[in-house]
Amino acid sequence: MKKKILVVDDEPSISMLIEFNLKLVGFEVHCVYDGEAVFQAIQHFRPDVIVLDLMLPKMDGIQVCRKLREQNNLVPIIMLTAMQDLSDKIAGLDNGADDYMTKPFSPQELISRIQAILRRLQTLPSTVENAPLTVGQIEIQADQREVTLRGQTIELTPKEFDLLLFLCKHRGKVLSRQQLLHGVWDYHFLGDTRIVDVHISHLRDKIEHNARNPEYIVTIRNVGYKLTEPAMKESLA
To answer: What per-residue confidence (pLDDT) applies to 191?
Structure first.
């Protein structure tokens, strides 16, 4: 069965270019041209990945992303932006986007990133053990893509889940941002590695007792991050 990609861009020339290239490699593609149209398209088309432009009429990409995540819709989102300002890219990630690309971009690079997302979602269930992974009071049921903290389910985006699982599998090991990009995003990222920092920040907000003083995901200055087993006192907090 063909994987479905929803393309959301108000510039017909860009939408047509993306659609043409995605169809060439076997994807089923549906295009809409404003933010409000996304929600009806999702109900009928049920995409596997959304390629979402930042600047859209009626509802911009950040608003769309935020609303989808508020509805607990975890479909992976790649944000497109013509803006070079890092703050705009970070805003997209802060509101639930899994990745971003800056226009102009290579269609092949977009295809590679979509394929990387799908590859991770498809291969994970068949390559993990059924036994849960446990770190402190965090339990990860990899085959079901579920995470609990102190017995309570926590909602993670697909990329947040992949990042936490990767850290857990390499617990105690210092991982550079490039290692995390390759291991979690499944490609050698060319550009700003801040995408890792943003997702780490989101994870800390959801799993740490105090995100400003993390006990699970520790920053190793000038290197990257490490997942650690918190002190026993955390369980008594």
So the answer is: 55
